[in-house]
């Protein structure tokens, strides 16, 4: 019956044998979709311990949707079975100490970060690491987990210099990782506060580079939601929001900012556009002399 309804378009199939009403599924955020699926699988397979990007979502970590492989990772002593579907990948390991989060068995925070570093796009794994550090994970705990599991943590060690818990969300973390890891720009400061000397208003910027010659470059990650989502515009019209952005830029320049470059997440996904914008703004490369 479910298969017929799926073929007719009344349902969508999110995993073999699991279906959802399209109107409900489409109203969920990517993280909510992951948690719905994992909870259903946990109900069907209570012995499973979820790992990688799925565990990251259950922990509430920032796992950028664009960086996911959209696989279900299960960790434990059992090897792959011929009955496993293409969406399921088993990580064979022994002595795993599962954590129960909202009734779902997942790997601990440190092990989750290690697995994400191994299976995700590195820029996405940086976002997971940033949010795990914000939740209190320490480098010492990461090292201890690597030693306990006798795991090669070269991928994690490669990410650590690029981590920064000051990112407010996964999008900011992912964009910064693209700048530094993929494009080779110097690591920026984040959430730097500037005070307008004329009005006394404070402005916090997404990314900031202070150059040796005294120049200050600021980059802002924009999204259309800030202009159209009533929750983010406080009910103001788009024109009012645009005028407030202009006042913000004027205030930043009075506070000493030399260059302001704005970019969108679409620019991040098309990294050559982001590279061109940052280069035109004279953002230094990592090898250049800059106080990041």
Task: Explain the overall architecture.
The chain has 292 residues and is of the alpha+beta class. The chain folds into two domains: 2-174, no CATH class; 183-291, no CATH class. It contains 14 helices and twelve strands. The protein has helices at residues 2-7, 22-25, 30-44, 52-59, 109-119, 122-134, 139-149, 154-159, 170-182, 225-228, 230-233, 238-254, 265-269, 271-280; strands at residues 12-15, 18-20, 50-51, 72-76, 88-92, 99-101, 104-106, 189-195, 202-211, 216-222, 259-264, 290-291. Strands 8, 9, 10, 11 and 12 form a five-stranded mixed beta sheet that branches. Strands 3-4-5 form a three-stranded mixed beta sheet. Strand 8 (189-195) and strand 9 (202-211) form a beta hairpin. Helix 5 (109-119) runs antiparallel to helix 6 (122-134). The chain is globular, with a radius of gyration of 22 Å. Residues 224-236 and 288-292 have low confidence and may be disordered.
Characteristics of this structure?
single chain; 292 residues; alpha+beta; 2 domains; 5-stranded mixed β-sheet; 3-stranded mixed β-sheet; 12 strands; 20% strand; disordered C terminus
Summarize the entry for a quick read.
The protein has helices spanning 2-7, 22-25, 30-44, 52-59, 109-119, 122-134, 139-149, 154-159, 170-182, 225-228, 230-233, 238-254, 265-269, 271-280, and strands at residues 12-15, 18-20, 50-51, 72-76, 88-92, 99-101, 104-106, 189-195, 202-211, 216-222, 259-264, 290-291.
How is the topology of this model organized?
Blueprint: H1 2-7, E1 12-15, E2 18-20, H2 22-25, H3 30-44, E3 50-51, H4 52-59, E4 72-76, E5 88-92, E6 99-101, E7 104-106, H5 109-119, H6 122-134, H7 139-149, H8 154-159, H9 170-182, E8 189-195, E9 202-211, E10 216-222, H10 225-228, H11 230-233, H12 238-254, E11 259-264, H13 265-269, H14 271-280, E12 290-291
Parallel strand pairs: 4-5, 10-11
Antiparallel strand pairs: 1-2, 3-4, 6-7, 8-9, 9-10, 9-12
Helix pairs in contact: 4-5, 5-6, 5-7, 6-9
């Amino acid at each position: 019956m479910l298969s017929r309804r799926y073929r007719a378009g009344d349902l969508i199939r999110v995993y073999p044998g699991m279906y959802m009403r399209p109107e409900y599924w489409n109203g969920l955020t990517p993280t909510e979709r992951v948690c719905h699926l994992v909870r259903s699988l946990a109900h069907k397979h209570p012995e499973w311990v979820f790992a990688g990007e799925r565990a990251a979502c259950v922990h509430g970590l920032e796992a950028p949707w664009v960086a996911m492989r959209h696989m279900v990772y299960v960790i434990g002593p059992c090897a792959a079975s011929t009955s496993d579907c293409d969406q399921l990948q088993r990580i064979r390991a022994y002595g795993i100490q599962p954590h129960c989060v909202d009734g779902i068995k997942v790997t601990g925070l440190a092990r989750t970060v290690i697995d994400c570093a191994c299976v995700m796009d590195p820029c996405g794994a940086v976002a997971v690491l940033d949010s795990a550090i914000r939740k209190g994970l320490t480098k010492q705990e990461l090292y201890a987990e690597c030693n306990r599991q006798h795991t090669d943590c070269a991928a994690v060690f490669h990410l650590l210099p690029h981590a920064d818990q000051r990112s407010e969300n996964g999008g900011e973390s992912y964009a910064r990782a693209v700048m530094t890891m993929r494009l080779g720009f110097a690591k920026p400061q984040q959430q730097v506060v500037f005070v307008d000397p004329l009005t006394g208003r404070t402005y916090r910027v997404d990314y900031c580079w202070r150059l040796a010659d005294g120049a200050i470059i600021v980059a802002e990650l924009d999204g259309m939601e800030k202009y159209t989502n009533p929750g983010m515009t406080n009910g103001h019209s788009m024109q009012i929001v645009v005028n407030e952005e202009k006042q913000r830029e004027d205030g930043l320049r009075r506070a000493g900012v030399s260059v302001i470059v704005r970019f969108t997440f679409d620019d991040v996904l098309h990294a050559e556009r982001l590279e061109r914008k940052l280069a035109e703004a004279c953002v230094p490369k990592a090898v250049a002399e800059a106080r990041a």
